[in-house]
Each structure stands twice: as C-alpha cells, then as structure tokens.
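Could you help me review a protein record that somebody else here produced? Do not assume that whoever made the record got everything right. The record follows directly below this note.
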Amino acid sequence: MFDTTPRGRAGGRTGARNWTEQTEWPAFLTWLALSWQSRPGIVLKQLRRRQKFLEGELAHKQEMLMAVRKEVGHRYHEAVWMLSLCIAQLRTELRWLKKVARELPRRSTARNPEYGVK
C-alpha cells in the first residue's frame, strides 16, 4: 500500500497550480492530423481499430468502477470520480469517432491554406 510521508503532506504539493493547468494530446490526435497522407481505406480502418480499442477500455473501466464502488462502499471517493471521468471521456470519444466515420466521405483539403501563413 502507498501512503504519503509526513514531509510530503507538510509540503503542500497537492496545492500546486501545475496539477490543474495542463492538457494532454493523445498520440491518436497526431495520427489524425497526419491521416490525410494515408492510402485509401486506411483512415476508416484505423478509426475502426481505435473504436474497438476504446470499447475494450470502456468495458475494463466499467468493471473497475464496479469493483471500486464495492470496495469503498459509496460513490463519493476519488477513485470513483476518476473512473467516472475516464468512462465519460471514453464514451465521448466513441461518439466522436462515429461522427468522424460518417463525415469521412466529405473530407477535403483546406479552402484557405494561406490564412495562417504570415
């Protein structure tokens, strides 16, 4: 079991701003930005692969949540909140993937590529 040390608790590190002011970009978004260079059919294949992966992750996180809820005996616990957020994010990305797959046939190049160039 892990526990913080008295020195760690006294240091107030959990109050630091850097805990709340960060975002992360999954590697999948880098792939998406580069996907216009893919051969035909690859993008849809990768979207489906991502969907399958996320569905597995969702099932796993839901099982974890049930186990944690059983262990802690209530829903007002950090682990419950963390897993609930992960589940919500997975569901959101799964909905988004379906939208992108539907819109994929309409994909086209930028109409004003010179806009961001200075």
Remarks:
- The CA atoms of residues 50 and 81 lie 25 Å apart.
